TrEMBL record:
Residues 27-219 form the Thiaminase-2/PQQC domain. It is an enzyme of class 3 (hydrolase). Belongs to the TenA family. Transmembrane segments: none annotated. This is Aminopyrimidine aminohydrolase. It catalyses: thiamine + H2O = 5-(2-hydroxyethyl)-4-methylthiazole + 4-amino-5-hydroxymethyl-2-methylpyrimidine + H(+); 4-amino-5-aminomethyl-2-methylpyrimidine + H2O = 4-amino-5-hydroxymethyl-2-methylpyrimidine + NH4(+). InterPro entries: Haem_Oase-like_multi-hlx, Thiaminase-2/PQQC, Thiaminase_II, Thiamine_Salvage_TenA. Its EC number is 3.5.99.2. GO terms for biological process: thiamine biosynthetic process. One of its GO terms (cellular component) is cytosol.
Length: 226
């Protein structure tokens, strides 16, 4: 069934090539690569990312529960664990550096963009079928894999204060998780109807737009207007 159909991921990336380019060239990412990103902007990002990772882990656990085979259960429950491990590592490195303890972190509200992204992911995970859940989760892996590789290639500044972040997402371990998420999404999509594949494309695009908004919001130090 899958042999005569373009893989979902190839089609999704093609449809969103301009959006990816807009993400890759965001001031947040170019400044991060140059080691020139203002600390308050990175701090805003990393605190929001701590909140994001906790909810993303929940969405992954729901994907694990909805998986159509045992490999999927293992793949997404492992990824849920990994998201929490990364969240805790952030606390030990960057939060410690910025003097933010767990209580202070918990007291900082989700920004509008972070709230929008996590609410979208959780609503999709709870309410939508497995293929659409996978499509909503995929940009988180894939965009970070691509941006991570791009930043690693351009991060030539010695003593970049954000090197630990760059190494996490630019590394080969992370790329293996990206490849696995793409492979499962493509396998599942190949057995679906055109209508479901279009629902997957909508979810994929929305998540990708929210990735752009997440970085942009950190650069603007976004807060609630009221
Ligand atoms: C806004 C935002 N989007 C994506 C990631 C990357 N990411 C977070 S959890 C996970 C999978 C398991 O570790 C991946 C790839 C991030 N950190 N923050």
């Amino acid at each position: 069934m899958s042999s005569n159909v373009t893989p979902f991921s190839a089609e999704a990336w093609r449809r969103n090539a301009d959006l990816y380019e807009a993400i890759r060239t965001l001031p947040f990412n170019t400044e991060l690569a140059a080691g020139a990103l203002r600390q308050d902007r990175f701090q805003h990002y990393i605190v929001q990312d701590g909140h994001y990772l906790a909810d993303y882990a929940r969405a992954l656990a729901i994907a694990a529960a909805k998986a159509d085979d045992a490999n999927g259960i293992i793949q997404f429950s492992k990824a849920a664990t990994e998201a929490i491990v990364v969240e805790r590592a952030l606390h030990e490195t960057y939060f410690a550096r910025f003097g933010i303890d767990r209580q202070a972190f918990e007291a900082i509200a989700l920004s509008p963009a972070c709230h929008h992204y996590t609410a979208f992911l959780l609503a999709t995970a709870y309410a939508q079928p497995y293929p659409v859940v996978l499509a909503a989760l995929l940009p988180c892996f894939w965009v970070y894999g691509e941006v991570g590789k791009d930043i690693l290639a351009n991060a030539t500044t010695p003593d970049n204060p954000y090197q630990a972040w760059i190494d996490t997402y630019g590394g080969e371990d992370f790329q293996a998780a990206v490849d696995g998420a793409i492979a499962t999404t493509d396998r599942v999509a190949a057995g679906e109807t055109l209508a479901t594949r279009e629902a997957m494309h909508l979810a994929f695009q929305r998540a990708m737009q929210l990735e752009w908004m997440f970085w942009d919001s950190a650069h603007r130090l976004e807060a609630w207007p009221v």
